[in-house]
Amino acid sequence: MSAPSIVILTGAGISAESGLGTFRDEGGLWAQHRIEDVATPEGFARNPQLVVDFYNARRTQAAEATPNAAHEALARLQSEHSGSVTLVTQNVDALHEKGGSKTVIHMHGALNSALCGRCEHRWSAPLEMTVGQSCPHCGAPSARPDIVWFGEMPYEMDRIEKALARADVFVAIGTSGNVYPAAGFVQLARHAGAHTIEMNLDPGENVGLFDDIRPGMASQTVPAWVSEVLSQ
Ligand code: OAD
Fold first, then answer.
1. Are residue 121 and residue 81 in the same domain, yes or no?
2. 46: helix, strand or coil
3. Residue 186 sits in the same domain as residue 212
4. Are 67 and 94 in contact (CB under 8 A)?
5. Which end of the chain is more exposed for a tag (fewer CB within 10 A), N or C?
6. DSSP bridge pairs for 6
7. CB distance 5 to 84 below 8 Å
8. Is the four-CA dihedral 118, 121, 122, 123 of positive or negative sign?
9. Are 196 and 170 in contact (CB under 8 A)?
10. Residue 67 φ/ψ, nearest 5 degrees
11. How much is the pLDDT for 31?
């Protein structure tokens, strides 16, 4: 039998033990900021300074964070598992890469990237972006954080859906199952006949769709699961 194809979806919970705040836990980012103000194209059009400042603060915090045992275990799985391992994250930090992962799909964008709102050129974001910064490609003063805001299409959906369609195992780690399309990946994986596993501190909204539920801190549950897979 060939080695199973694995698709992993991570959310803010995997970076919580690295000191980065989640969104919907008590005191989380969405308790401190209104989504409409800082995470929508309309919010950016209304008050670009507020939005740029919000992501500058998150970029600075993320730059100082270090990966934890969960990020490192997933990197080990990607390098040692003989089947395919597709790692999809909703996180905009770079902790998977810092933990050693070579291939990561950032479906909600990345803090270390800037995007031209005019020509869609991307470049490496400075730690502090400024409002009206020029695009190095077309020159328009249209730089914005390369973050997928509410109402925008997440990145690389074709690639993700193809991986889900041939998944044998689907694992969701540290995500509340609130935000679509990511929250619907478990259904696509089930449709493909995959075994589905949730690793979360608190059960996600879509917990009923998982075959195997492993509650706990990601720094413990994820390395334990990776050792299990690699020993099979
Ligand atoms: P949430 O804040 O909604 O959920 C975080 C999940 O992580 C919760 O289910 C927690 O129980 C769990 N958790 C917290 N600490 C944990 C730990 N140490 N180990 C394991 N699990 C832990 O974050 P996301 O689901 O990632 O999108 O949020 C999804 C999207 O909503 C984000 O990408 C962002 C946000 O709005 C955009 O900004 C577009």
1. no
2. helix
3. yes
4. no
5. N
6. 85, 169
7. yes
8. negative
9. yes
10. -65, 155
11. 87
Q: How confident is the model at residue 26 (pLDDT cuts 50, 70, 90)?
A: confident
Which CATH number goes with the domain that contains 207?
Answer: 3.40.50.1220
Enumerate residues lining ligand 1, CB below 6 A.
11-13, 16-17, 22-25, 28, 39, 90, 108, 148, 150, 174-176, 178-179, 200-202, 204, 217-218
The residue behind tokens 């690295």 is 18
**Could you tell me the strand order of the sheet in which 122-124 lies?**
122-124, 109-116, 143-147
Cα separation, 121 vs 137, in Å, equals 7
Q: Are residues 36 and 132 in the same domain?
A: yes
**Two tokens at 147?**
């973050």
Give helix then strand counts, H and E, for the chain. 10, 9
Q: Domain containing 124: what range?
A: 22-64+111-147
The pLDDT of 172-182, averaged and rounded, is: 96
How far, in Å, is the centroid of ligand 1 from the Cα of 174? 6
Shared domain check, 210 and 165: yes
The amino acid present at 19, given as its one-letter code, is G
Do 92 and 71 contact (CB within 8 A), yes or no? no
Full-model pTM: 0.97
Give yes or no: 33 in active site.
no
Annotated catalytic residue within 81, 96, 108, 137: 108
